[in-house]
Amino acid sequence: VQLVESGGGSVEPGGSLRLTCSASGYTFRGHYMGWIRQSPGKEPEGVATLWGGDWSSYYADSVKGRFTISQDRAKSELYLQMDNLKPEDTAMYYCAAGATLSTLIPSSFPHWGKGTQVTVS
Q: What is the per-residue burial (b if ≥16 Cβ within 10 Å, else e) of 76-106?
């Protein structure tokens, strides 16, 4: 399984970014994919997850109403649309895959990408 993130960058508060995760060697159906973020000195935090079968999605309270997770199975891609970004959203964002439960617990995902940096200032 290979997960490659892109789309990170620097943006002012209130701005938007769209992250993309390109997956290879992975079956979307039957598993959850998600986005996890980690700021320096902090534990990883699950941001959003998506069920590969019916698009059921779940969000951390800190991003609800601002972030949207989606997928394009034909392209083997996962997305995270981030709107109304805040300085506290600054972190390395990782694409994660393979969870079998609806969870935002980072350790539940056996596969991670290398991350893309998002800076809001």
A: bbbbbebeebeeebbbbbbbbbbbeeeebeb
